[in-house]
Design a protein that fits this description.
mainly beta; 2 helices; 20 strands; two-stranded antiparallel ribbon; 18-stranded antiparallel β-barrel
Length: 416
């Protein structure tokens, strides 16, 4: 029996048992368990989400293009709240529509560029939550998104979302403070649901994710975070695909308005941790300013991932596609670090949301130029249920280490 089938059975048992326990507690204030169960079902919701995507990758490092035609189907059940308890169960299926002329990381087509959307079915989320006005706790497989997702995210751009197995507690005052802590013992990566020769589908270990957000008035927020990752070694893969992603990261970020300028700034320091065989200390920092006028917004930013002893600053849990260009040439920082000077413009043309972005990449430890990139996107929300998106990335290399690449995406999404 494969991993995905085991996951489905085990999480169905967990969610059923925990939700039943929660409903029993909540039912003490009701006429009985059956009434509580009826309320949980009658006030619950069921949703269906289909996302089709065609992705073409033309990379000069490969003689053949990648052409990926995939459909992500999602079914989500969420209960009503009884006695402070509620639960959620969500299934995802990724299937190929037509031929798989791309390297999905599990189909063995290494003569084509990677499009990391392997086929399969798994439990995407399965959790029970208890909440009061200022405090909540959630246990199970869940979505965890911190801030901009630069360090902890869901990689929801890919068809198989990254989710986390563990216990999460959140406390917050409506006025100014919010504390978020999670203990995560398993990370369900985008390369799942099953292991492949290229990548492990899961990272097990002892991981602590903590973030404190402090609102300083109406227009300023200061946040501090600690991410202590201790990822277990997976012997079938190189350490860089498992245990060497064990890191301790401490940082702060700021977002707010200084007059007409929206400002974002962040700093973090990182070192190796756990059983990693690396030895390094590296820094991260970024600064961005943005302004809007007459429906058009522009931003200018500078982001640096440093390096030490030939190891670049690591962001193994990030939604990395959001940063440093959509061509995904820098999902991991090179051993001499990376600097990204970028600018972007967004606006609307009727109902269509448009965006154009430019990046200039170079090494942080040397003067080497890595290349430049243009990214373009148009999103048309045709209705509340149906949307389309056309997206393009063009990376032009200035270094022998990287190849020129172009990517085109066409996405159709239906939510019911």
């Amino acid at each position: 029996m494969d991993n995905s089938m085991n996951d489905k059975k085990s999480y169905l048992m967990i969610i059923s048992g925990l939700l039943a326990a929660g409903l029993t507690v909540g039912a003490q204030a009701q006429d009985g368990f059956s009434e509580a169960l009826s309320k949980a079902v009658s006030e619950g919701t069921a949703k269906v989400d289909f996302r089709y995507r065609f992705e073409n990758v033309d990379d000069d490092a490969f003689a053949k293009d990648a052409n990926a035609s995939t459909l992500r189907s999602r079914l989500t059940f969420q209960s009503g709240t009884v006695g402070g308890f509620n639960g959620l169960l969500e299934f995802d299926n990724v299937t190929y529509v037509g031929s798989d002329d791309f390297n999905s990381t599990e189909n063995g087509k290494v003569d084509r560029p990677v499009v990391a959307d392997p086929k399969g079915t798994e439990v995407n989320q399965a959790w029970v939550k208890y909440g009061t006005e200022n405090l909540s706790g959630i246990y199970g497989r869940q979505r965890i998104l911190h801030g901009s997702q630069r360090f902890v995210g869901g990689v929801a751009w890919r068809q198989n979302e990254q989710t986390y197995d563990g216990l999460r507690a959140q406390w917050g005052e409506a006025s100014n403070l919010h504390l978020d802590y999670a203990y995560v013992y398993n990370i369900n990566r985008v390369f799942g649901p099953d292991d492949s020769a290229a990548q492990p589908a899961n990272w097990k270990g002892n991981n602590h994710l903590a973030r404190l957000d402090w609102k300083l008035g109406d227009n300023h927020t200061l946040s501090g975070f600690i991410y202590a990752l201790e990822i277990d070694e997976r012997g079938a893969w190189s350490p860089n695909k498992s245990v060497n992603n064990s890191t301790d990261t401490y940082g702060v970020d700021y977002s707010g308005n200084l007059g007409p300028v929206a400002v974002k700034a962040a700093y973090a320091t990182q070192s190796d941790a756990g059983d990693s065989d690396l030895d390094y200390d590296a820094d991260y920092y970024m600064l961005e300013g943005a302004m809007s006028s007459a429906g058009i917004s522009g931003k200018l930013g500078y982001e640096v991932l440093g390096a030490d002893n030939g190891v670049g600053f690591k962001t193994p849990l990030a939604t990395a596609h959001k940063f440093q260009g959509w061509a995904d040439k820098f999902l991991t920082a090179p051993g001499d670090g990376i600097e990204d000077l970028y600018l972007g413009v967004t606006g609307n043309l009727g109902p269509v949301k448009l965006g154009a972005f430019y990046h200039d990449f170079s090494a942080e430890d040397s003067s080497e130029d890595f290349g430049t990139e243009w990214d373009l996107v148009g999103t048309w929300p045709i209705s509340k249920q149906f949307s389309t998106q056309l997206k393009y990335a063009n990376f032009s290399s200035d270094s022998d280490r990287y190849s020129d690449a172009q990517k085109v995406w066409v996405t159709l999404q239906l939510k019911l």
